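Fold these two proteins, one after the other.
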Amino acid sequence: MEKSLGGGKVAPQKQFLDNDRKVLRFFCESEDLPFIINYFLADDTVEIREVHHPNDGRDSFPVFLRRRRIPFSSEVKQPGLAFIGDNYLTCDEITPGQPIISFGRAFHIQGVDDYTRDYYLAQYQKEFNVSCIAMPEPREPTAKQIPPYNGFGNERDTLGYIYRLIPQKPKSDFFKAVDNDKKVLRYVAKFNTKVPEDVARRFIISYYLADDTISVYEPAVRNSGIIEGPFLRRGPYKNVDNNNELITPTDMPLGGDIKINGFSYHLVSADDYTATYLSSHFQ
């Protein structure tokens, strides 16, 4: 009530009540670095804050100067030689085109916000440009170069070291593995070759629908001189004739050819389940 009647308060108290939470904001530049200066009208204090952007190479200290009044002189005085009177920066002394000096460092005003522009026009007939801190454009992302697979381990595990610093275990398709558990397509194949020693060789190619992996087994052939056993370990293999995509059942029709791990096979026949599966799913 006493304040509304226009009296009863000393000047600092009246200034605080009139200008509480009113802040002037200046966007400045000093030594090629951006800063934001906040001038609090309630008590004529100033706060200088740093402006950071990602990967700017500077320690992220947000406050460059803690909120306080800025003196005109930053000299260290001897006892008894301190200035007498009001020698601190006030808002009426800030002028467009002139830097704000804080403890010997010049902060050049690049622009202000809308409230600060309107305040100076109404109070001091000074016109500031409205602008903000211009952040640099983000750099173009560097394309990840995937090295060729060296054949050791699982390729999906190897790619984990490229996409993440700490690789994670590859996630498999759970529902696909459950729906196709123990479902295997088996083919009888032979080499596409004219080498006499390899013409009579036969292979059993197994395609596992649960995880799209392939294994090749070589059965015994009488008087061939070749010991039976696993010819290719179970794993995912790529089709070099289809942009190095993983081999799928569509790439393995009966009577067709398929290249697996550098060997070209001709699919001679298949068991009854495989023939039924191919005829029902791939017309």
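Now the second one:
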Amino acid sequence: MALSAPISIAATQTAWALALLFGLLRLSVVRPRLAFDPMTVVVLIFVGLTLVSSTFSYEPEVSIRKMVAVSLVSIAYLVFAAIRREKDLRRIVASLLLAAVVTSLYAIGVTVVGRNLKVTEVDPAGMLALAGVRANDTIVSINETAVASPQDLEAALHSIPSDAASKIRVYRLEAYYEYEIPAGAQRSNFGILNWSRGRDVRAAGFYGHYTTFAESLQLAASLAFGLLIAVPYALGWRYRLAFAALVGSLAAALALTLTRASWAGFAISGFVILLLGASKRAVIICVLLAIPVGVAGLVYLQQKRNVALVDANDGSTTWRTTVWSEAVRVIVDNPRHLLVGVGMDSIKTHWQEWRMFDNGRLPIGHMHSTPLQFAFERGIPALIAWIVWIALYFRMLWRAWRRTDVGWPERGVVLGSLGGSVGFLASGLVHYNWGDSEVVMIFYLLTGLNIWIARRAEAVGV
């Protein structure tokens, strides 16, 4: 699971399903005594309230099917049950970081080499310009065939009859557009005056979306940074150099996603980790180093996305503010919504009844905010249960971190998870990152590691 989590949701969920199957078989044979600590009880309450919400949903069949994603929380307890000793925990951490670095290097490599065809200059009288393609557009595909050069474009066009129309897909400033090259168009004059390999599409790793990739990188980079800060000076510079390289590669890939909330989440995570684990001198040095890095990041963001870090005129920002106000209206207008919400994914078929998404003038989606999504779909009691769950988890992490006689790798895991969780929750204010199964599986995996660290420390009295 740790090896596949940063790479493939299908492989990770297969590993989870097998672990769940054999875990249940083991329970039927070994029948261990189950310890229901306060956090576990609250998790069960949250899951139970979600099931109640799904039962009373406007679309119960749809919502109940979503309970499969809710049950991913079992990953935390499967991981906890699978660990027998420190060596197991360290292998899981190493596997997770190794896979995350592989995805990072892949994303960096794709950006360096480039992909698709970017037309930096076009002839206004050429076929592409007449179809709608502009200078600095990146041509992704034609007739669903990927293109990376004018030769690829020519081959794809000539693979279909000249009397058939062609669909061309381009990327321009965070949006994809489709244009049609009409049948019988002059295909010998593309009008490409200058071109390069495309490097504008935001990095998504092996995932299908850059936000999912960014959120997973934030958690992995925080884990690596926590281990870097926890390395004892007695171990020498090799360990610190290795973890610094890990953090650097993960942070570089995170930068290529151009996801502002995840950037901010990692910045908050890093500050928390430094504040708890580093000396005052180290904190000052890191803050001073972060200033030019941050300025460079803002310039890069402006060049690639044409937005500022906080931009009231950005379409994604105005979309959020509009939909958030609509969601609050729907919640408070009906006592049923306050109690059990509207049900998971019921918005997809009932948004018109609630006059949402500016009456359909905005793209249809979710709330882009984890707390608001929980309140909207599952009700206020479920939101409260989730807040209590997170509070108990932070209390567990804090207590584990304060135990100075725990091994440094375990302390590093706790510190990195503590910072990463703060960053994850911070970015979750403007992203529904809890709804990304790829990301939440990594979060639950780290939760399982920390449950084992905390419970073992309490059991042996270290």
